[in-house]
Amino acid sequence: MTTELFSNNAQTYVNVLGGIDAIQTFIPVKSSSLFPSASGQFRIRIDDELLIVTSVNGNIFNVLRGQENTASSAHTYGSLVTLILTAGSINNISGTSGPTGPTGPAGSGYLPSVTSVDGGGPAFIYLAQINNSFVELEIDGGTP
Fold it and tell me: b or e along 106-144 (b: 16 or more beta carbons within 10 Å of the residue's beta carbon)?
């Protein structure tokens, strides 16, 4: 499993005259300085497309296009590029594609069937270590 990387307030824009087409797997950006640079992956949004950045080389993002049921599409020069947290990234850090998955990688865990705070049904708590801090995400299962 690939390590999911995060950073706060990471934004830049597409930096190639003429933009990029729908199949290009490298994205030139104005600056990558606010984005993660360690080994792993992170997710970005450009217009209505979600992409996974698999590596960064200077100000070039190597990407997998059209992720999480979005369509790969062309993007113009100056299109906003934003690092985002998605359902796919949560599933990756929890080590599961659903609420019955296994324990995730070192530094994260999955605790199934925790009582919901509203008493309406099971809740699922995902724990992840991000930048030497633990983040807890609770997803309430609601009434069964």
Answer: eebbbeeeeebeeeeeebbebbbeeeeeeeeeeeeeeee
Mean pLDDT, residues 112-138? 50
What is the side-by-side order of every strand in the sheet holding 122-130?
108-115, 122-130, 133-140
| Ranges of each domain in the chain | 11-84, 95-140
Exposure string for 25-34, b = 16+ CB within 10 A, e = fewer: eebbbeebee
Q: pLDDT tens-digit profile of 80-89?
A: 999 999 988 8
Q: Model confidence at 126, in pLDDT bands (50, 70, 90)?
A: low
Neighbours of 36 (CB within 10 A): 19
